[in-house]
Design goal:
single chain; mainly beta; 1 helix; 5% helix; globular
Length: 148
Amino acid sequence: MSINRVNISGNLTRDPELRQTQGGTAVLTLGVAVNDRRRNPQTNEWEDYPNFVDCVMFGTRAEALSRYLSKGQKVAIEGKLRYSSWERDGQRRSKLEVVIDELEFMTPRDGQGGYQRQAPAPRQDRPSPAPVVQTPPAADVYDEDIPF
């Protein structure tokens, strides 16, 4: 049995690049800098040493996320490692990258949970949905009354 799972969090090193395969599948590539903290033997101070990780995501989610990601944002990524090798100009090349399954934004824009890039404004020809009002449960509801 083998396990291939990766969890990283760090800052985007560049604006993500979105392109299409010949078959029409969206491919989003991005770079993430993940800091490794260790003590400098000369100064005895803690220092961050960056590791640069190439990441890729496929499909409609990749296309949608490309509109909200930008250089410098902090993200958390869950995925799996993929090794690729090829030959270019007579030289053998290879790389190890993370194929993204889940991506979470970690850079809030403001105190209200927004992020650095916002979704396009809603179209004016459609009414905006009514806000959902949550009412607290009645005081006479107890844990024993809940069937799960």
